[in-house]
Design goal:
The protein is an alpha/beta fold. It is built from 16 helices and seven strands.
Length: about 400
């Protein structure tokens, strides 16, 4: 494991297994992406080099402002050429002067910059991989479950490999890039965290965070002769809170106390299932709330009314109820739910869902089966060829039955 005894490490009381390395402090807004790439490259070289003198050389580079700016100019020029070749407007040059590095640009540099390509070739026997993770306002923001699954697979593969190597995790926070590096050697892990703001986030208490961020901002404003911007202070305060939380979570992920995917699906730290559980909860509430069952216009009592009155209902009464069910189903689009929500949950695997989520799915499954049973009962009594039972109604109920099959496999 790389010896860091003489290297400046910021205190990390919140996540004691993480080495928070001191790096060159970012002096211009928006350069965090380039700083993150530079810091990663230098630490990676320090880890890979065998001679102590070479390790020290790259560790010193991490704290060299000259080296940062030299790297920035080279990498920025390389990226600019790429953007121009791909038809980007020439104004992108001015855009990049502020350093704002989009996710696609960062990933392009990681995969295509000659320095990184040569490094992979030179150390081809060394396990080396990277992934990007997004976290903001106390939640993982991975976009889709598919992206979270890809990152989870990379983390699992590395943690279970027992092979010497490095997994680089670029953490995208609110308007800021930082780096989290996991180094494995002889089945032992070392964790490194680098942030171009150089603020000791991992040792700040929650009650002191705002004061620390404000003081840092005021000092920066004095140096640059700028006015205070309280919006930026609040943004950085949220970012500081996120850094402390996500670093603790990353430490737990490496220690296998939790997984990235489980946190992405958690109500406290994730966003995915919230998108799904809202319509699920609505459907459950509608059909389980205590309402008058005598009125077929009342959706909440509709299923009970149907089951008790269908056999004695006239064709017109039965069709009126059928129409209500049909209109209600149109609002929730069974085909869209089946092809979108459920397929994604199926790919993720129900082992990552909470007991409450699984209970919600089971409740919804029961409700849908009642609706489908009503459709079958109508056909049995009045016939599928009934002019009232038109093609559009058949199609929606057909979609519902396909959705039920997907659900049965999911919650079994």
């Amino acid at each position: 494991i790389l010896k860091m005894a003489d290297y400046p490490i910021l205190e990390s009381t919140l996540a004691p297994y993480i080495n928070h390395l001191q790096v060159v402090k970012q002096t211009r807004g928006g350069l965090c992406g380039f700083h993150s790439l530079f810091n990663t490259y230098c630490l990676l070289r320090a880890i890979l080099e065998k001679k102590t003198s070479d390790q020290v050389k790259y560790l010193l580079k991490i704290r060299s402002a000259f080296s940062v700016w030299k790297y920035y100019q080279t990498v920025r020029g390389f990226l600019l050429e790429h953007l121009k070749k791909n038809g980007q407007h020439v104004d992108v040059a001015n855009y990049l002067k502020d350093g704002s590095l989009a996710r696609g640009d960062l990933e392009y540099l990681v995969n295509k910059h000659p320095k990184n390509i040569n490094l992979k070739k030179r150390y081809s026997s060394f396990y080396l991989d990277y992934c990007t993770i997004y976290y903001g306002y106390s939640h993982f923001m991975m976009g889709t479950p598919k992206i979270a699954i890809q990152a989870q697979k990379k983390i699992d593969k590395f943690l279970n490999s027992k092979q010497d190597g490095v997994l680089i995790i670029y953490l995208g926070l609110i308007n800021h890039w930082v780096t989290f590096i996991i180094h494995q050697r002889d089945s032992k892990f070392s964790l490194y965290y680098m942030d171009s703001n150089n603020i000791p986030h991992l040792s700040i208490k929650d009650e002191d965070a705002y004061k620390t961020i404000l003081g840092n901002h005021e000092e920066r404003c004095r140096i640059l002769n700028k006015k205070k911007n309280m919006w930026k202070v609040k943004l950085k305060f949220h970012m500081s809170c996120d850094i402390r939380k996500v670093c603790v979570l990353m430490q737990k992920i490496v220690n296998k106390e939790t997984t990235l995917l489980r946190e992405c699906l958690s109500e406290e730290t994730g966003l995915f299932f919230k998108e799904y559980s809202s319509p699920l909860a609505s459907m459950v509430n509608v059909f389980t709330s205590k309402c008058c069952v005598a009125d077929p216009q009342d959706f909440a009592g509709m299923m009970e009314f149907c089951s008790s009155k269908l056999t004695n209902a006239t064709q017109e009464q039965a069709f009126a109820i059928l129409k209500l069910v049909y209109q209600w189903l149109l609002e929730y689009k069974p085909k869209a739910i089946r092809d979108g929500v459920y397929n994604e949950i199926k790919v993720i695997g129900n082992k990552y869902l909470s007991p409450a989520d699984k209970s919600l799915l089971c409740q919804w499954s029961g409700i849908q089966k009642k609706i489908a049973a009503y459709s079958d009962a109508y056909v049995k009594i009045h016939g599928k060829g009934d002019a009232c039972y038109d093609n559009s109604i058949q199609k929606v109920f057909g979609d519902l039955k396909k959705l039920i099959k997907v659900m049965d496999k999911l919650i079994s």
